[in-house]
Amino acid sequence: DAERTFVMVKPDGVQRGLIGEIISRFEDRGLKLVGAKFMQISDDLAHEHYGEHEGKPFFDGLVDFITSGPVMAMVWEGQDATRQVRTMMGETDPAESAPGTVRGDFGLDLGRNVIHGSDHADEGANEREIDLFFDEDELQDYDRID
Ligand code: CMP
Any idea where this protein resides (predicted)? Predict the structure, then answer.
């Protein structure tokens, strides 16, 4: 079914000039961009967004990193969009990501892995993350012509 998924180019991806490359990959794949926000994540938003990782050894570094510069937050829509995006992103660890995936092609390490996408295995993740970053009236409704 057509569904919406949350995707974000992290500060390393923005700073390395990878926003366009990443958007192109999703557009070429046939996914539809319905929301985009170039923004600075606050400390509070970082804690909410990554709440499930609170208490883990990498949590403080993760919050520091994700607030270290602007991110490109996006909502993409399409058939099975969450799984499609996960496939195109690669694994969390770039070293384990196949060439041709965003992290396999551009990721440097577990922290600087260029991109975030909602967890496919986590049922409510998409809705939760979209709600956290976007108001409903910031999401656009239009037809993609393929
Ligand atoms: P992301 O998909 O944004 O979700 C949580 C992030 O935490 C993950 O990508 C990684 O960038 C980061 N992360 C996960 N595990 C580790 C780890 N062991 N060390 C450092 N960062 C991690």
Answer: Cytoplasm
